[in-house]
Amino acid sequence: MRPIRVTVWHRQSLVQFAVLLTATLAIACGGAAAQDLGTLTPKPLPVLAHPDDPHTPAKELFGRETTPAAMPARSIGYYTHGCLAGGVALPINGPTWQVMRLSRNRNWGHPNLIRTIERIANKAPSIGWNGLLVGDMAQPRGGPMITGHWSHQLGLDADIWLTPMPNRELTRKEREEMMATNVVADDWMDVNPKVWSPTYIALYKMVAQQPGIERVLANPAIKKALCRDVKGDRSWLHKIRPVPGHNYHFHIRIGCPSDSPGCKSQTPPPHDEGCGKDLDWWFSKAVREPKPPVKSKPILMSALPAACRQILAAP
Ligand SMILES: [Zn+2]
User: Is residue 279 part of a domain?
Assistant: First the structure.
């Protein structure tokens, strides 16, 4: 499947296309996946009988890699079709962050992503957010994942929970089983007023304003609330991109690093706030309600940049 450009999403009016796209996007960034329970006793995946078979889905190969490729850091390919060399792990505990769902081993990224998360985490207390609970980033060598996520393949994406970090270190069990906060109302038409607060607005603003952040993916209801509630400086609103799901977490995406010539940039988001007609489109019934995941053909190695084979083969 070819990468979907965000700029085309809003201009489509064909409902059929909308339904298909919505279903695709719902699994794109793990709308529900961040809520999947983890386990304290993860079992290694069975060894593949024919890893070199060209029909072996790339996710089965990258999903079995438990360590990064020992090479200089480099993001290769596109956000939805690529891989990562020299991945770095975000430490599971920082002064103002904790990593969740450790059994997934997805706290890896390009060093730029690690720095970005640490910067956001350091700033969080200044806007009244105690710290970050960090969900999925990338696998040690990036690439497609066996569960959840269309993107997150380059080590340039991360999911951050919409629950502030508690004032104590979470246990391993809590990190596998705790649930994040849903800020969206049950009818998906707006945020839940019992949960939504000025602190959420300050959080989205602070995150969107950090250097290197190209996009912050949020449920359309959250974008709607921001469009309505943000006063004063609205220059960052265009970076908040409406995407189904993303009601328990937001997804940050940084741009291609300068050390990664093989990284394919995404078209920058349009500069207008995105609060007009384009946003209304997301609230038609056909579009707004989450759909069961569509079965799509898995990505094969032949669809990834050739360099991703070397990443898999590297020590
Ligand atoms: Zn995501």
Answer: yes
